[in-house]
Amino acid sequence: MIGAVLAPFTFGLSFFLLGMYAMRTGFQNLAGKQMADWLSRFTRTPLLSFWVGLLSTFVLQSSSAVTVLTIGLTHAGMIGFAQTVGIILGTNVGTTVTTELIALRLETFAVPMLLVGIALWLMPRRLTRCIGLVIAGFGLIFLGIDTMQVMAKPLQQSETFRALFLESTHSVWLGLLTGTVFTGLIHSSSATTAITMGLMSHQVLGIETALAIVLGANIGTCFTALIASIGTNTASKQVAWCHTLFNIVGALLFLPFLPQLGAISAFLTASPSMQIAHSQTIFNVVCSLVALPYTKQIAAFIQWMFPGKRKR
After folding, report:
1. C-alpha to C-alpha distances, 266 to 98, 206, 269, 272, nearest whole angstrom
2. pTM of the prediction?
3. Which of 44, 163, 275, 280 could form a disulfide with 265 if both were Cys (CB 3.0 to 4.6 A apart)?
4. Is the confidence at residue 1, as pLDDT, over 60?
């Protein structure tokens, strides 16, 4: 039983994370060198900062990477903390692009995309190699998802696992905690969401439990930023805590409305995977757009909560 679950989970997660790394590396080689310039130049207004955060997250395929980069720029004094609030809101929306792509269930194209990507990566031109790395990364991601879904059947037959998730159906708090801790351990909310999609597709999880796990994944992804802020200046720590508190507050506010969120996503699509993807998109877009007009107030609140050392 343990081997039947652990093997596909380990290999699938490894494929998935390797694919994310390959895709991110390919995008970084294409546009990553200009990323720091974009972040520092185009953050004059909250709306511009929002779009910079959204586009940067789409390019780097990691909200954590953009947040860590933002922490680095803040620590270097290239941008002020107040400018970063819009970026943080944008990263939360940008990360939903990956989730929506995963939900399209392109697993049948995994091996062809991987082979095409490798063939392009072996070409001499740098641009072609970068594009090949991105395509191969997508292929590995879908191969990882397909592999991880193999564990769904033995999990369904496990009395312990069924008892755990039966308890989760009575308490969405357990689902929230599961998503938070698991994402914190593997440093990828997209991987947690992909695993949740697979389990829900095989009717191991109900919609409310799955959504609670996804909300927890949004919180868990903040651990990387908190770690990156260790040893930095006050402004950088404020960036990390702003990202963390925003995701915690958003998750807690949405938690009582999971049945309604599930109903809306079920109305939009019958596919379990797409329901999770749409729910996460709705959650992040609503939270970010509601908070966007109040970026100055949010910045002031975070600065009040985490003030710098007073000069004597």
Report:
1. 20, 12, 5, 8
2. 0.69
3. 275
4. no
Structural domain of residue 283, as residue ranges? 2-305
CA distance 69 to 217: 20
Domain count for the chain: 1
In tens, the pLDDT along 75-125 reads: 767 677 888 888 888 888 887 776 776 666 656 677 888 889 889 988 888
d(CA 281, CA 267): 15
Tokens matching residue 77: 């004094």
| 261 phi, psi to nearest 5 deg | -65, -40
| Tokens describing residue 279 | 């729910």
Question: 296 or 67: whose pLDDT is higher?
Answer: 296
The pLDDT, as a whole number, for residue 249 is 92
The answer to whether position 112 is within a domain reads yes
* pLDDT of the residue at 148: 64
Q: Is residue 311 part of a domain?
A: no
Q: Which residue has the tokens 């990566």?
A: 121
Measured CA to CA, the distance from residue 106 to residue 145 in angstroms comes to 10
Angle at 142 between CA 286 and CA 61, to 5 degrees: 45
Q: Is the pLDDT of residue 152 over 70?
A: no
